[in-house]
Design brief:
By secondary structure, the protein is α/β, with parallel strands linked by helices. The protein folds into three domains: about 210 residues, 3-Layer(aba) Sandwich (Rossmann fold), CATH 3.40.50; about 80 residues, Helicase, Ruva Protein, domain 3; about 70 residues, Arc Repressor Mutant, subunit A (Orthogonal Bundle), CATH 1.10.10.10. The protein has 16 helices and ten strands. The strands form three sheets. A five-stranded parallel sheet has the order 2-3-4-1-5, sandwiched between helices. The chain has a three-stranded antiparallel sheet with strand order 8-10-9. Strands 6-7 form a two-stranded parallel ribbon. Strand 3, helix 6 and strand 4 form a beta-alpha-beta unit. Helix 10 runs parallel beside helix 12. The protein is globular and about 65 Å long. It starts with about 25 loop residues before the first helix and ends with a helix. The relative contact order is 0.13. The structure holds adenosine-5'-triphosphate (ATP) and magnesium ion. Adenosine-5'-triphosphate binds next to helix 2 and helix 11.
């Protein structure tokens, strides 16, 4: 009985939620694109998914990759871009692991696969000259393919070769990059150019590219290459509506024979405000707070919400606050007055007692760089974490 009633909720970065609520449309659309790509053995437009912190971007990407891997019809890799780290290196590492699966030693390797491995080796040698990653047998680099050291040209060669090989094997290629806004600008430009070039072939190779990141990602990509605006199929991942939040909370409970009382559910929904991360935190603490095994009451909800709020305050909001400089805090306090709506820089100038927009530009740029805020529109800024404004209003307003 114990495990039947074990806590199903999963707060934390990238943790698979017990119920992936409100994402059926995007899951269906991406599945549709992928099916089409395999069927026609032809690539489609690259996809970009953007959304605030903790709305479930990583969970979605993982789901796409898991489905692809399970179907055994995809060469699938997922990497996370990190500020200051090159995409070439992370991609080379992830692809190495994936390509080893295509090249089990002892088996007769198809010509096209052997060719792909050689092109991959060229690509890899530019980041790992010692050739540490091995395939268990010798793979010579292929001169003139993916070996210039110029990311833009090499990634194009590599993607092309991956696509041709996948086609040869009746498979597709899935490349997923999380936190894409953090990749170096030159890498983003290289990626844009490569994907653009691939898309222009008479019969594009069967690659599906999915990038995910903060709401700033579309403009970061456009900054790197002007035509990026038209290159990608942009999808915004939003907060959950009431029905979706309800599903996220009640389905996992029902599966364990536990029922939410209506008033408890209303209280939890109000506290959660559609934020998936907070839904998991609330779910978890409310679950643990229940006084009887098969029911969640008002009281349980009140206690659990309180504990969840404390935990998220400490873990998510306070740590960001602590890392901010006094000037950055002033700016965030001024922003918090707009609640979860974007703030006009003009208003912030006034609220912080400054005289010019440029007086705020250092704080603005630093906060953007740290990923605390983003600019949804010219002259506006907004928090990247839902609930940050509320946290500041509760804890740090004077
Ligand atoms: N559709 C959903 N329904 C319920 N819970 C969800 C949903 N999507 C994500 N979650 C939960 O929300 C939390 C955050 O998910 P995830 O790490 O994927 O967000 P993210 O958008 O990648 O955040 P970040 O921008 O910080 O990387 C996890 O605990 C996850 O289980
Ligand atoms: Mg994430």
């Amino acid at each position: 009985m114990e495990s039947f009633r074990s806590n199903p909720f999963r707060p934390g970065a990238g943790r698979v939620p017990p119920e992936l609520a409100g994402r059926d449309v995007i899951l269906g659309q991406v599945a549709g694109v992928m099916e089409q790509v395999i069927e026609a053995s032809e690539g489609d437009r690259p996809i970009v998914i953007s959304g605030l912190r903790g709305v479930g971007k990583t969970v979605l990407l993982n789901e796409f990759v898991r489905n692809a891997t399970e179907s055994r019809r995809w060469i699938a890799v997922k990497v996370e871009a990190i500020a200051g780290g090159s995409l070439r290196k992370t991609l080379a590492q992830a692809l190495h692991l994936e390509l080893r699966k295509l090249a089990t030693p002892g088996e007769q390797i198809r010509d096209q696969v052997a060719r792909l491995l050689r092109v991959f080796r060229s690509f890899q040698l530019t980041v790992d000259p010692a050739g540490t990653y091995s395939f268990g047998f010798t793979v010579e680099a292929m001169p003139g393919r993916a070996d210039t050291g110029d990311f833009e040209r090499d990634i194009l060669d590599l993607f092309e070769e991956l696509g041709l090989t996948a086609r040869d094997l009746g498979m597709g290629v899935l490349v997923a990059i999380d936190e894409l806004q953090d990749a170096p600008k030159t890498d983003l430009n290289g990626l844009n150019v490569a994907l653009h070039t691939l898309g222009q072939a008479p019969r594009p190779v069967p690659i599906v590219f999915i990038g995910a990141g903060l709401p700033s990602l579309p403009s970061v990509l456009a900054d790197a290459t002007s035509y990026a605006e038209r290159l990608y199929d942009y999808r915004h991942l939003g907060l959950l509506n009431d029905a979706e939040t309800t599903t996220a909370l009640t389905k996992p409970a029902e599966a364990r024979g536990v029922e939410w009382e209506e008033s408890a559910l209303v209280a939890a929904r109000r506290a959660i405000g559609g934020y998936p991360y907070f839904a998991q935190a609330c779910g978890k603490h409310v679950w643990d707070a229940r006084a009887v095994p098969d029911r969640i009451t008002d009281d349980d909800a009140r206690v659990g919400i309180e504990l969840a709020r404390d935990e998220v305050d400490r873990g998510l909001y306070q740590s960001r606050w602590d890392r901010a400089t006094p000037a950055q805090r002033d700016m965030m306090k001024a922003m918090a007055k707009d609640k979860d709506r974007p703030s006009a820089i003009q208003d912030l100038v006034q609220r912080t007692g400054k005289s010019r927009t440029s007086d705020l530009s250092v704080s603005r740029n630093e906060l953007i760089k740290n990923g605390h805020i983003y600019s949804p529109d010219r002259g506006y800024v907004a928090f990247t974490v839902p609930g940050m404004a509320d946290f500041i209003a509760r804890k740090h307003s004077d």
